[in-house]
């Protein structure tokens, strides 16, 4: 059985815990919450058969088999880097954090010192296997468009571009590089960063973000061209009720990745 520590217990974290409850090979022992949010998180976990212990930092003597981040960009610096230094393998969903200059190199150095690994999860998108394989032969272009219902762009710079409550048609709120998208939209452009890191890099991947009042889905579309040929994919994700910014597939992506570490056959 794998002993897991989970960072963050919001929309993704709670849904992952629900799905893992009956897996005898995976056990989340600790959940790391933001300081001051411990009681709230304990309440969220009250109905679980064996709720994980809620802490604000990994105890010095704790040695989980895996640490999985489901919290947000700041958690990478705060929890993932120190865990890697301690030799704990980490899985992360907040891939957009790697858009900060130098962070990729710091994560690699921490993992090398800890003799461990960091795994960037596909989250709300698919096709990362094909895109990163295509990169081996050389890519010419990768274009990504993220389209979400208008409410998913609340409390983002999109509010300065248009009135999200008043728009009656799909409106482009951002065009630029994946690096800039991930910086400006930390809760909405992790997919842009993931596609970039698998493909052409954060500065050469072109990103368009759209607020669409007529859509109920988070639609991720990308097109890649290169020596391998061409590849186009459109994924229409259902948003989580607990957080309309986040697609349900992100939860399943975490559960799949953890299962692949624990089960005899991985796919
Ligand atoms: N790769 C992908 O495809 C996707 C990635 N994501 C990433 O996943 C993150 C989480 O998504 P979601 O669960 O929907 O968001 P929620 O806001 O519902 O939950 C995040 C939880 O993490 C907690 N948290 C935030 N920072 C820290 C920290 N430093 N240490 C411990 N806990 C922390 C928050 O607590 P509090 O509010 O009390 O700080 C909150 O309870 C997003 O911010 C985004 O970066 C999301 C969707 C798709
Ligand atoms: O969940 C999604 O649809 C994608 C998302 O928020 C992100 O890319 O950060």
From TrEMBL:
It catalyses: L-aspartate + NADP(+) + H2O = oxaloacetate + NH4(+) + NADPH + H(+); L-aspartate + NAD(+) + H2O = oxaloacetate + NH4(+) + NADH + H(+). Its EC number is 1.4.1.21. Pfam families: Asp_DH_C, NAD_binding_3. It comes from the Bacteria. The active site is at 220. GO terms for molecular function: aspartate dehydrogenase [NAD(P)+] activity; NAD binding; NADP binding; oxidoreductase activity, acting on the CH-NH2 group of donors, NAD or NADP as acceptor. Pathway: Cofactor biosynthesis; NAD(+) biosynthesis; iminoaspartate from L-aspartate (dehydrogenase route): step 1/1. GO terms for biological process: NAD+ biosynthetic process. The keyword Oxidoreductase applies. Transmembrane segments: none annotated. Residues 168-255 form the Aspartate dehydrogenase domain. The iminoaspartate product is unstable in aqueous solution and can decompose to oxaloacetate and ammonia. This is L-aspartate dehydrogenase. It comes from Pseudomonas wadenswilerensis. The lineage of its organism: Bacteria, Pseudomonadati, Pseudomonadota, Gammaproteobacteria, Pseudomonadales. The gene is nadX.
């Amino acid at each position: 059985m794998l002993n897991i520590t989970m960072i963050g217990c919001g929309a993704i974290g709670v849904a992952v815990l629900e799905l893992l409850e009956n897996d005898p090979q995976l056990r989340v022992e600790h959940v790391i919450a933001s300081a001051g949010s411990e009681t709230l998180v304990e309440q969220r976990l009250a109905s679980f058969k064996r709720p994980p212990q809620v802490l604000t930092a990994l105890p010095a003597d704790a040695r989980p088999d895996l640490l999985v981040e489901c919290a947000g960009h700041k958690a990478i610096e705060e929890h993932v880097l120190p865990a890697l230094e301690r030799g704990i393998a980490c899985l992360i969903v907040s891939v957009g954090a790697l858009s900060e200059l130098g962070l990729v190199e710091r994560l690699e150095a921490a993992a090398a010192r800890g003799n461990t690994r960091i795994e960037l999860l596909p989250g709300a998108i698919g096709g990362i296997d094909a895109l990163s394989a295509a990169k081996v032969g050389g890519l010419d272009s990768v274009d990504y468009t993220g389209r979400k219902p208008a409410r998913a762009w609340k409390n983002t710079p999109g509010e300065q571009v248009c009135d999200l409550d008043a728009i009656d048609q799909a409106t482009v709120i951002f065009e630029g590089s994946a690096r800039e998208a991930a910086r400006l939209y930390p809760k909405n452009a992790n997919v842009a960063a993931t596609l970039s890191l698998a493909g052409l890099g954060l500065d050469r991947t072109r990103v368009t973000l759209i607020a669409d009042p007529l859509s109920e889905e988070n639609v991720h579309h990308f097109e890649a061209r290169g020596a391998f040929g061409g590849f186009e994919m459109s994924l229409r994700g259902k948003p989580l009720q607990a957080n309309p910014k986040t697609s349900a597939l992100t939860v399943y992506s975490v559960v799949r990745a953890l299962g692949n570490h624990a089960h005899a056959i991985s796919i």
